[in-house]
Design brief:
This protein has 12 helices and 14 strands. It is of the alpha/beta class. Residues 1-21 form the signal peptide.
Length: 417
Amino acid sequence: MKKNSPIIVVLLLTMAFLSCKSTQTSLPKEVSAATLLGNPNYQAMCYGGYRTNSREVVPTLAQIADDLRILSAMNVKVLRTYNVHYAETARLLEAIRLLRKENPAFEMYVMLGAWIDCKNSWTDQPLIRNQDSERNPIEIAEAVRLTKLYPDIIKIIAVGNEAMVKWAYAYYVEPNIILKWVNHLQALKQKGDLPKDLWITSSDNFASWGGGDKEYHVEDLTQLMKAIDYISVHTYPMHDTHYNPQFWGVLPEEANLSEKEKINKAMERARDYAISQFSNVKKYMTSLGINKPMHIGETGWASVSNEFYGTEGSKATDEYKAAVYFQLMRDWSTTTGVSLFYFEGFDEQWKDSKNSLGSENHFGLINLQGQAKYALWNLVDQGVFKNLTRDGKSITKTYDGNEAALWKEVKTPAMKH
């Protein structure tokens, strides 16, 4: 082989250095909640990887790793978990670290949930809303332990999931309980026992954050808003197609539109309804003289329901409407700089184990057969999931990709009068 001249050698070394430098600077220098949230390059998703109808069967490390590869291919880089009761969360963190060892450029971060209940929850004893369940201190302690073990992955701790909203009758707490644990975690940050740039929040329904009934407008909520690093808001128009359906249905002036156009108009109103709930929280927060970042901790749209939202009810649930809602909300959140933890990546059947067609089992973008629902068909076409599998199955399309077959199950909402 002919030897390179000194000038060529210098040029080659310079190009290699610049290439390496470009690769390094393509990753954020300091990854924190402050840099992740609101960044459209770091899409967020709620995660649960349970395959069976019981959480006693925890997904294996290999199964979770498969899920992570799929989510990463979708440009999802921030995951939300809900509790540390089971081994799944610890395995998720371990799987992320293993994938990083395989590929140092692999990025996945976690919003770690600590489940909070009131005293006597899930028992036949009287519920005491302003006292902790025996489990709460254990949850918080485990969340702290995991954050210390994985400070490079866990960037947010959420104290409670819909723990303050009063329709969560079996377990909801008064805001002072959430405030106590938020203050505890903030104090650990101040002492240096937790990372300084770790963000602490609580993830709850818009009403719990003051965006609805005034019964939630209490002093402890004001103090909680001051104590957290940002507000994590939940909004579910799909549920309100039954419970509060003023936005739902086909308007008289839309009667002559095609069925698809009628549905699209209804879904646009569902998006606007979700945005209004988010905005109402912001209005309440600013009315108190508080200015904290706000993001959506949960929203989603089920593809199946044999309950209030299905064909015998509000006719809200099918893969087409779920896909439209997903895209509308992603578009809005990306353009407004709001992170949106979409609920959820994969179907799980433990949530309503006695009713396989219950809506709670069908919020995923990918079903239990490893099929991408209509919302992700374009990604299948683009080859995003090429060489990726879930439980040994390639990611294919629902309905075998036959859109006409899908539309046979899509129902138009009723006319409004």
